[in-house]
Design brief:
The complex is a heterodimer of chains A (about 240) and B (about 220). Chain A is an alpha/beta fold and about 240 residues long. Helix content of chain A is about 35%, strand content about 25%. Chain A is built from 8 helices and 10 strands. A 6-stranded mixed sheet of chain A has the order 6-7-8-3-9-10, with helices on both faces. Chain B folds into 2 domains: about 100 residues, no CATH class; about 80 residues, no CATH class. The two termini of chain B are about 30 Å apart. Classes of the chains: A alpha/beta (about 240), B mainly alpha (about 220). Chains A and B meet through helix 3, helix 4 and helix 5 of A and helix 7, helix 8 and helix 9 of B.
Chain lengths: ~240, ~220
Amino acid sequence: MRFRRSDPEPEARADPTRGIELRGVSHRYGDRPVLADLDLHLTEPRIGIVGANGSGKSTFARLLNGLVVPTDGHVLVDGLDTRTSVRAVRRRVGFVFQDPDAQIVHPTVAEDAAYGLENQGVPAPERAERVTEVLARYGLDGHADHPAHLLSGGQKQLLAIAGVLVMRPARVVFDEPTTLLDLINARRIARVIDELEQQVVVVTHQLDLLEHFDRVLVIDGGRVVEDAAPRPAIAAYRALMEGR
Amino acid sequence: MTLALYVPRQSAVHRVPAGGKLLALAVLAVVLFAVPTLPVAAAGLLGVLLVGLGAARLPAASLARQARTVRWWLAGLFVFHALFSDLPTAAVTVLRLLALVLAAAVVTATTRVTEMVAVIEWLCAPLRVFGVRPARIGLVIAMALRFIPVLAERADRIREAQAARGGSARGLRGVRTTVTPLLVQLLQMAHTISEALDARGADDEPPARGRRSPVTAA
């Protein structure tokens, strides 16, 4: 199989203590500015991102694992620049999308969970072991050979999370992971996020999800207008929205 | 819409490598068409049923479902040959096509997609000299199987949304009002899927490895 060759060096250069740094980051789509002048250092285990629709939250999330490279400035993950070491960055930062249907790419549950490991070249026996373990952890072990499209919405989101966590990233970014779910499944996903050992960045409209987080950023008009503990940040966000 | 192809079972047929099953399918097709007699066609169909329902322990309903999907084609062929050839020819034509359809159904029901994809990748390996990536071809096939039901579901949602507002999905206008929003949704979805593939390392280079092994969660 011929792939673009990835540079093994960035992994060696990575410094896990540095966290995620945004230095003078701005981003625009064509002439439309989406994010402007962001200078942030994200080291806390639990970080929430809130903001109105179109405020730039999803673009912000995509910057963190190199899905979007900023038009200006630099995003560094453990010291690795997303512009020059994107594959190494993506191995370190998992990404869970809002719509699991767009994230599940293989027909059956176990096959999809194994997809990222195949890309990493994990040997088949270890792959099977890790897939079994992750499916069991998220209550999907009875569905391993089932077609993914027959899962419930909550199960699909769990599979999407399993497909990312099986790759053992050091950090995970969630882009509105509970938006399409009912209350029970939203709580279930919240518990899953809560139990993760990794650093977690969650973009969400579900404010109670952020109650026990360490830090919450409020984004408005492409800028961080509040950066504080959950309670004051959420209060500032509510005040901002009430004024509209 | 369901596209549940694989039926998990612990059977000898399931354990046969995908390449072996595909080869057997090809041999069956050659024999059925090379020897167009009623006994051979009937024996072929009987053999497929014995393997599918007996050895592989597939539910009869799954094979019946496959047969139902082609019943009008078979009926049309039977009538055509009965009118323009003779009854034995009509019977042979229908029996051998039914045998092949059911044999293909047995192969897909007893073989994981990853195993099938591995065979396709292996067959496409010589194309590497032309710059083709066999793994990409395999991924495209797996993704097509994955997303056919998703697209059908999206199309149903669009039709329901239109019906809820008094619209109709009938006629040329119905096709246009369904296809246009569906295409927009598909383009948006394709963008997210490409991001998801990137996020899960689709462009990574794994260490040298042999053929892809099927994933079996215990």
